[in-house]
Design a protein that fits this description.
2 domains
Length: about 110
């Protein structure tokens, strides 16, 4: 974790304990929630993160550069979207676990150089 972020979290902890955390600082704490240690109940609770959540959201980023060799870009986009559909349909997103996918979305965009 970045030293500045750690110091900022500790400052916010102090403000929280002193009961003078401003609305702006609370919003800042919420924006830094991903940097809070999973066992730091004090800051997680203040940031509005449930202690024992059964739901989590994740994002997979797959960055691909193609040499198209004449293949239409729309076909390549469809192939990438097909990867997500295949993974969801075959249970590959959760693997061999008890986890359940509640929702998923695939979006393929072309990035221009």
């Amino acid at each position: 974790m970045d030293k500045q972020i750690k110091q900022r979290l500790e400052y916010l902890r102090g403000e929280l304990r002193a009961e003078r955390l401003s609305y702006d600082e609370l919003a800042e704490l919420q924006s830094l929630a991903s940097y809070i240690a999973p066992d730091d109940v004090e800051l997680l609770e203040a940031a509005g993160i449930p202690e024992f959540s059964e739901t989590t959201r994740m994002k997979l980023i797959l960055d691909v550069t193609f040499e198209t060799h004449g293949v239409p870009v729309e076909d390549l986009k469809a192939n990438l979207e097909g990867i997500a559909k295949h993974a969801a349909g075959e249970g590959l997103i959760t693997g061999d676990s008890e986890a359940e996918v509640k929702t998923w979305e695939a979006k393929v965009v072309q990035i221009y150089p």
